[in-house]
Design a protein that fits this description.
alpha+beta; Alpha-D-Glucose-1,6-Bisphosphate, Chain A, domain 4; three-stranded antiparallel sheet; 3 helices; 8 strands; globular
Length: about 150
């Protein structure tokens, strides 16, 4: 069984600014309504610790492996529930420079495994809502203007 969720948002900020917010993992608890924490050595091939809290669901903790960490472009990991093939998720953030001062953030996840049918309703509602809420908060942070004070 397989399922994919794709969300996208246009942000009036540079890819660098979007990337800096996305990869400032220490500040996730301050703004991120979906990924409550992300820690560890974020490098390709390394395991990280992630705690997710989809709206209306319990907090889930897992230890995925980083598949891609390409500055200003892509961050992707692969996690498993208990063991491979049961419920696997490949989570991805893709950043696209639109060439006009805006950036598109695409957050997606490909799910595979025998338990997909059991989680379908949660994925279609809670998980999609979590992606969209995170995307919106990141957009709000990236589009904030920092006031310039003159002396």
């Amino acid at each position: 069984m397989a399922k994919e969720i794709i969300t996208e948002i246009n942000i009036n900020a540079t890819p660098e600014k979007v990337w800096n917010i996305l990869t400032d993992f220490e500040n996730y608890p301050n703004w991120n309504p979906f990924i409550k924490s992300l820690s560890g050595n974020v490098a390709v091939g390394k395991k990280i610790n992630v705690k997710l809290e989809p709206p209306g669901s319990k907090t889930m903790a897992f230890v995925p492996t980083v598949l891609a960490f390409d500055k200003n472009k892509e961050f992707r990991w692969l996690g498993h529930l208990l063991f491979k093939g049961l419920f696997d998720g490949e989570h991805s953030f893709q950043i696209t420079d639109n060439g006009n001062g805006t950036t598109t953030l695409k957050q997606s996840e490909k799910f595979n495994g025998v338990l997909i049918p059991l989680f379908k309703k949660m994925l279609d509602t809670n998980t999609v809502d979590g992606f969209n809420q995170m995307n919106q908060k990141l957009k709000e942070l990236a589009e904030k203007t920092i006031p310039i004070f003159s002396v």
